[in-house]
Design the sequence.
């Protein structure tokens, strides 16, 4: 399926893919440190396993970094 991930159109294998599955498919390191925005809405982490992505969705992986 084709998704827009962080502003870039990408093809991801699978059709029944949850947000957790997408994080795994994209080999996101430290997925518990990533927030996910799906079609403009920030998802709660406890919904990653039950929220499915579909073709043409817009997904943003947001990384929060500390520093000074």
Sequence:
């Amino acid at each position: 399926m084709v998704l827009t991930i962080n502003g870039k159109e990408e093809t991801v294998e699978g059709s029944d893919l949850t947000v957790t599955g997408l994080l795994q498919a994209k080999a996101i390191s430290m997925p518990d440190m990533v927030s996910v925005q799906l079609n403009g809405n920030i998802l709660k982490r406890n919904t990653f396993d039950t929220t499915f992505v579909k073709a043409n969705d817009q997904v943003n992986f947001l990384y929060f970094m500390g520093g000074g």
Q: What stands out?
A: The longest strand covers residues 58-63.
